[in-house]
Amino acid sequence: MKSAVRLLQYKVLKWLSYASCVIMLLVSFNGVVVTRTGSGLECGREFPLCHGKFVPGTTIGSLIEYTHRLTAGIAGLLALITLIAFLVWARKRRDFQIYAAIMAFFVVVQAIMGALAVVFSQSPPIMALHFGFALIAFASALVLALSVRRAGSLERYQAPPAEHRVSKRTRNLTIFSAAFTYAVVYTGALVSHTELAKMSVVLHIASAVLLLFVLMVGHMAIRNYGHIRDIRKLGIIVVVLMIALPLSGVLNLVALGSEYYMFAPMLHTLITDFLFAFLCFLSIRTWELSRVPAGEEASVSVKKTVQA
């Protein structure tokens, strides 16, 4: 009976993490639509009302802005429910609780920043940070979903075998690549709000450097750790996404003024969100595997465990 309850709890938490991941992605998509259509102030400088009403008027702009607000509100509520559920039912998995807490914190913060941007005029750096926080919220949701799915239960984390050990060099390069990706994405969001030519040049240079680092991470994951199934898969995913990212950026420029005006930036945002999220998950996995004892250390660790 107890095992059946634990299994049910696990399934509920798993689907909550999946739902959170989807709603966070929708928030990003809606944000792109709002920015592209210039609908940010279509409800006036009011929040949460739209021109004094809970239900907006029939104008396209007000519907777009109100949909974004509604999606962000649902995302915040779902993130809080997910956090509480993990705190109650996943007490043995502190890592799950941390991911859920990060997700809830950043989705609430970015929602508050969005509301303040409506009521009070915000500077471009703050608006770019608003997008950056939404990116962290989605990455945390994806990391949570992938971690729960990979674990298969709510039991304590089990250390992998010694042959799955990852070098500190690979770990550090992966973490740096994830952090650098966030910096490039923030710069891109800042450029979109300021349209400064000098910053655009810096962005292109940073993107080229990012391409190099991510390809190195992918190469190391596939070639050096091909025997570790999830590391190999994550290496392939980040390489594919990294190659697709500049291509989607070119499509974004080509689509200006065409019928693909809205589709191209949504595709670019989709690739960006998943690239950063998968790099974050790969960083966590390499960090975990870099702590696995190797060789004699592993045998000593096993002896200590047996004696205990």
How do the strands and helices of this protein lay out in sequence?
Blueprint: H1 2-37, H2 60-89, H3 94-119, H4 124-151, H5 168-194, H6 197-223, H7 229-254, H8 263-290, H9 296-307
How would you summarize what this structure contains?
It contains nine helices and no strands. The chain starts with a helix and ends with a helix. Helices cover 78% and strands 0% of the residues.
First and last CA, distance: 30 Å
> What is the overall silhouette?
globular
Low-confidence stretches: 296-308
Main β-sheet, in a few words? none
What structural class do helix, strand and pairing data support? mainly alpha
Describe this structure in words.
InterPro entries: COX15/CtaA_fam (IPR003780), COX15/CtaA_HemeA_synthase (IPR050450). Its main location: membrane. It is a multi-pass membrane protein. Keywords: Cell membrane, Disulfide bond, Heme biosynthesis, Iron, Membrane, Metal-binding, Oxidoreductase, Transmembrane, Transmembrane helix. The chain has two domains: about 1-155, no CATH class; about 160-295. The chain contains nine helices and no strands. It has helices at about 1-35, 60-90, 95-120, 125-150, 170-195, 195-225, 230-255, 265-290, 295-305. Helix 1 packs antiparallel against helix 4 (about 125-150) and helix 1 (about 1-35) packs across helix 8 (about 265-290). The longest helix has about 35 residues, at about 1-35. The two termini are about 30 Å apart. The model is unreliable at about 295-308 (pLDDT under 50).
